[in-house]
Write a structure and sequence with these properties.
251 residues; two-stranded antiparallel sheet; 2 strands; 55% helix
Length: 251
Amino acid sequence: MSRLPPALARRIDRLARRAHAFHRWAHHPLCTYYAAEVVRVGHRTRVCLGCSLTAVGAIAGVMVGLVVPSVPGVALLGIGAVLFALVPMIVVRPSTPPALSVGANGAGVEGLRANGFHPAWRSRARKLLTRFLPTAAAGFPVAQAALAPSPSRIAAAALAATAVAWVILRYRRRGPDRSACDACPEGPPGSRCPGLAPIARRERALSRLAGRWIATALPIPGAGAGPAATCPPPRPPPAAPPASSPRKPRP
């Protein structure tokens, strides 16, 4: 159980949330190699481009589905079937640059490093194709099925929702694409990674400030009462052994 006062613990929690809010939704290192993967909001905050386009596409698809007149159920069923068949292959497949797949001994990575690799293949147009359009197309039949339910419309909405849910599950199991880190001149993510340096600096500043708050709220016993209170009293010298009486000569 924490020994901190509850008010101080809540204050430190709020401080930590504010300190790391600038990268909470970035989902990528904050370096130039991943500049195409994030969106700058304000001076420091970064937001993941893929997640943003996914949310915006879903909202846009639902809004269009609510505004557009009713579409025949057969057409919606075709849209759902196409999404169910194509979206998992388009979205889940990692987009590795061709140079990274040259040989198994890392020759492609060395070539990228020598040529000053920059991930131009991470284009924002690709994110529109693999994030915005699939979720927008999935949100459309869902909204149409909500407006005028029918067996074909409900089946189309189920296919679209299943495709999106399967993609999200596969993506969470695969994890984010970190192939750009393999070609980074700074090496793998760690203490030298420029994309993690701002996060590490913010964490060190947070630790210093939280440490001062804790030291103020929980002072060390005896601190501030002078040297006599902080230093233990000297130990008494060891007692001398008792003097032995002289032996009497034997008769």
